[in-house]
């Protein structure tokens, strides 16, 4: 049935087309009017396809008392919609698009053959308070339902990625990956490792020996001369078997290293002497410093006596 004079029915952006035995929504005639309130209750409307996207200015929509079996998904385009009545229809489920209606405050779904899980989630909607809770519950339900469907799709993808073994056990390739075992070191690497360790310990021993000899030369020149007299023949015999050019280079580098080492140790000893003089000039720590100095001297005396006796 074609509705005549629709413009004459508009009052304050409100259009009342209730009880006119309409079998479809006259969208082409309604869209240019840009109404905010639309009453289509108590008609014979069966479909809402290709309707909502053309009526974005709707704030209130009444579709109760019709023969609608499903709501079109483009209802999500009604971003201003705050009131929606779908009571007394044949609706079993709601579209995901309804979950996008952020302004929806009132939803009436009473007297519809809703599926049990939807009824449990949304609850009854008879009075205003229940309709308000139904709106919030429906939006939350639809958002959660979309997440569940996404989870189901992800699980399906996971099942495709995993292959079942002949025994019915799923084999996950990522789980079956074992960490590569470290290959045992070969003979060549062991030999180089041994010589590297030997060189490191030899250099460490040489540094410690040089430090001891220089400290000995500073505190007791006689003891240092005795040790030096014993070490020089050993070093001479060790370098005598080397090529003269190689031996000269070795001695040169050792002399340079020894001079740098001597300078560093000498600087540290001078700093120690200055610190000692500072401590001695302060009466508060003089006694403590004296005790430390006596202990230090007794220690070195005991060491040097043993060196002299040998």
UniProtKB/TrEMBL annotation:
GO cellular component assignments: cytoplasm
InterPro entries recorded: Leu-rich_rpt, Leu-rich_rpt_4, Leu-rich_rpt_typical-subtyp, LRR_dom_sf, LRR_domain-containing
Keyword hit for ATP-binding: no
Segments for region (Disordered): 144-183
Alphabetized UniProt keyword annotations: Leucine-rich repeat, Membrane, Repeat, Transmembrane, Transmembrane helix
Keyword Transport: no
Biased composition (Basic and acidic residues): 144-153
Record field: transmembrane: 191-216
Protein name (Swiss-Prot/TrEMBL): Leucine-rich repeat-containing protein 59
């Amino acid at each position: 049935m074609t509705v005549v004079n629709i413009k004459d029915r508009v009052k304050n952006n409100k259009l009342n087309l209730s009880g006119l035995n309409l079998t479809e929504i006259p969208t082409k005639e309604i869209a240019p009017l840009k109404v905010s309130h639309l009453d289509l209750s108590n008609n014979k409307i069966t479909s809402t396809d290709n309707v909502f996207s053309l009526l974005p200015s709707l704030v209130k929509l009444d579709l109760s008392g019709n023969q609608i079996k499903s709501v079109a998904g483009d209802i999500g385009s009604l971003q201003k919609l705050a009131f929606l009545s779908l009571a007394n229809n044949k609706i079993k489920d709601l579209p995901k698009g309804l979950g996008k209606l952020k302004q929806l405050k009132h939803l009436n779904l009473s007297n519809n053959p809703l599926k049990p899980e939807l009824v449990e989630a949304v609850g009854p909607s008879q009075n205003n308070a229940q309709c308000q809770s139904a709106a919030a519950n429906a939006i939350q339900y639809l958002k959660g339902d979309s997440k569940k469907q996404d989870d189901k799709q992800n699980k399906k993808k996971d099942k495709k990625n995993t292959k079942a073994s002949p025994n019915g056990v799923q084999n996950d390739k990522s789980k079956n990956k074992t960490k590569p075992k470290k290959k045992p070191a070969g003979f060549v690497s062991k030999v180089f490792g041994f010589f590297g360790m030997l060189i490191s310990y030899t250099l460490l021993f040489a540094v410690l020996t040089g430090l001891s000899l220089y400290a000995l030369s500073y505190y007791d020149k006689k003891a240092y001369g005795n040790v030096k007299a014993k070490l020089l023949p050993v070093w001479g015999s060790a370098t005598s078997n080397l090529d003269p050019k190689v031996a000269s280079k070795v001695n040169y580098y050792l002399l340079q290293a020894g001079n740098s080492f001597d300078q560093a140790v000498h600087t540290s000893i001078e700093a120690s002497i200055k610190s000692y003089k500072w401590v001695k000039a302060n009466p508060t720590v003089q006694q403590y410093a004296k005790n430390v100095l006596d202990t230090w001297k007794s220690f070195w005396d005991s060491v040097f006596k043993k060196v002299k006796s040998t």
